[in-house]
Amino acid sequence: MNSQMNLASHVMAVLCHKINEGAVTSDELAEGFGTNPVVIRRIISLLKDASLVGSKAGVGGGSVLLKSPHEITMLDIYNAINLENKTNIVFAKYSSRCEVGLSLAPIISDLLDEISADAKKVLLKSLKKITLFQFTKKVSRKLKKAI
Asked: What pLDDT is attached to residue 89?
């Protein structure tokens, strides 16, 4: 998972945790994450485009979940931030005198893409099974053990 998925999951967990407290501002979220509010707003924008989060700018504004945390899956969040798991491997220049190296690069890239696609299927299947509510509960339990 990349840092966007980590941050998006964290944002959604906070919104779930504060569901009865009203909107949460990007400044509040950024302070809790130790990051710039602009970074949070970019993530919220992606979640908003996926109709997972609603937000209102200005005084009294902030973000809220648009669906019950029981209805939102981790796959929804994953899809919202549009992660691409392609390997996109950049190979070093191979000598034109080495026919094996020139032939090998695309074969390795294709094979790694196949492996990545298989892994992505397993990941997506797992993410689809976990709701935001379940995820937030697991986070809370692990947090209590860590403190």
From this structure: 35
